[in-house]
Structure prediction request, 186 residues.
Amino acid sequence: MKEVEILVEVLDSQDLVLNKLKKFKSKGARKIIDLYFYHPEKENMQVMNKRYPTEWLRLRKMGDKQYLAYKLDYFEGSKWLYSDEHETEISDIEAMKKILSSLGFKKLLELKIQKETFLTDDYEIDLEDVENLGLFLEVERLNLNDSEDVTKVKKEIQQFIDDLSIKVSEELNFGKPELMLKKIKE
Prediction:
């Protein structure tokens, strides 16, 4: 499934942002633990030569549910455009960790996230407080047709973010895993 979204760092207070988002339908707050893996023999899954992976394997624990996801990132030059994401619910995250280890995958990093999600007819809006990283707003376009122009969709998402009147950074063009890897390297 094609995933088109924009991630920005929030520069306003969390309370102010939540107050502005309360006009949308709330899906509630959840604690998430994301475990990212790499494979030492798969070049696109490694951090090397100041380059971040373009393929990601992730295990996610969200409440009492667990998921396995594979993401493939697409870029225009150095600017991230979108990802193909394939995710499925799994019943035993510990067994999946053993399977991945047996297949040669290694843990790359772990993210602990407190996420509050809101919905409109067109967008999923996530306010994410990422431990040791910061506060982020991620807006994803829902019901995306694969033939839609990604650049146009991203402009629409950016306009939606601008209309929220929340102080945010420019689009980060990196996901939270890349931001954490960058922070770890500093």
